[in-house]
Automatic annotation (TrEMBL):
Gene3D superfamilies: Immunoglobulins (2.60.40.10). The keyword Transmembrane applies. Keywords: Cell membrane, Disulfide bond, Glycoprotein, Immunoglobulin domain, Membrane, Receptor, Signal, Transmembrane, Transmembrane helix. GO terms for cellular component: external side of plasma membrane. It comes from the Eukaryota. This is Uncharacterized protein LOC113058337 isoform X1. Its main location: membrane. It is a single-pass type I membrane protein. The keyword Signal applies. It comes from Carassius auratus.
Length: 269
């Protein structure tokens, strides 16, 4: 009985070890970031940490090298130039998280981190962490009053074009282009990754899309331009109710007049 149980548990152990070592994605961590914003891909080497030097860390995707850090030296892959970092002050404490700036749609995918160890000419590496990064677009619904300014966020320098679809039409018109002359329209202004449409009217109601170089939508904003009718409407309502009251009080008044006139006529007779 006990030997069978022992055999079963030994078999289970072996099976677990095989599964854990054969599938590097068994412990994959899922994270997501909105396009144009920063992302942090978690990683920890605290358990492998040797007190006298900071670990040597590699991060790469299935096809590209993302980042390698050895002490103060850091190498960034071509697609991640000036955008990737494993901060040294965190790495000293065993936190090997990868910090990405200005996330792109093309950054989506599986990332793997490795700890490199050994003498200068014989290097080995230990797999640490798999992270799946999802990159999502921005979506919003906005309501703006006629005459007010509409502010569209471009989020990132990846923004190449803003297109607009009037709510009553099916076609799209280019509203703004990064290097275009459309820039010069006086109702359009660009300031700090934001596009400002001055004094909107009903014809500005519709859908706005911010596109990147590949024509993918970084952001989709549905805009409804509303009439600032709230005050006028209440005024009109008040007038109406005042009129209503006047009409209501009319019959008794006329009755009194009628009564008085009748009395006067009686007295005269
Ligand atoms: C690493 O540092 C970042 C930023 O401070 C933090 O968000 C994250 O939780 C840390 N990860 C670990 C494993 O300590
Ligand atoms: C597309 O829209 C613009 C204005 O938004 C309009 O002037 C033009 O006629 C439209 N084109 C088509 C083919 O519907
Ligand atoms: C957009 O739609 C409005 C009606 O909502 C219409 O009056 C206006 O002419 C349209 N503007 C353009 C540019 O197509």
């Amino acid at each position: 009985m006990t030997t069978t149980n022992n055999r079963i548990s030994a078999f289970l152990m072996l099976w677990l070890i095989i599964c854990a070592s054969s599938s590097p994605f068994s412990g994959v961590v899922h994270t997501s970031s909105k396009v144009g914003l920063p992302a942090v891909l978690p990683c920890s080497v605290a358990s492998h940490l040797e007190s006298d030097h900071t670990p040597h860390i590699q991060w790469h995707t299935i096809s590209y090298s993302v980042l390698e850090r050895m002490g103060q030296d850091q190498f960034q892959g071509e697609a991640y130039r000036d955008r990737a970092n494993v901060p040294e002050e965190l790495l000293v404490r065993g936190n090997c998280s990868l910090f990405l700036q200005d996330v792109r749609f093309s950054d989506a995918g599986i990332y793997e981190s490795y700890l490199v160890y050994g003498e200068s000419n014989i290097k080995n590496r230990i797999f640490i962490q798999s992270v799946h990064l999802a990159v999502i677009d921005h979506k919003a619904i906005k309501s703006v009053e006629t005459g007010a300014d509409l502010i569209l966020d471009l989020y990132t320098h990846q923004a190449e074009q803003v297109i607009f679809q009037n709510s009553t039409e099916t076609n799209w018109t280019v509203l703004w282009e990064k290097d275009g002359i459309i820039n010069n329209k006086d109702y359009l202004k660009k300031r700090d990754h934001k596009l400002i449409l001055r004094r909107v009217t009903n014809s500005n109601s519709g859908t706005y899309k911010v596109l990147d170089l590949e024509g993918l939508a970084l952001s989709t904003v549905k805009v409804k331009v509303t009439e600032p009718v709230l005050i006028k409407e209440t005024e009109a309502l008040e007038k109406q109710s005042a009129l209503g009251q006047a009409t209501m009080s009319m019959p008794p008044l006329s009755l009194i007049t009628l009564f008085l006139t009748f009395n006067l006529m009686l007295q005269m007779n």
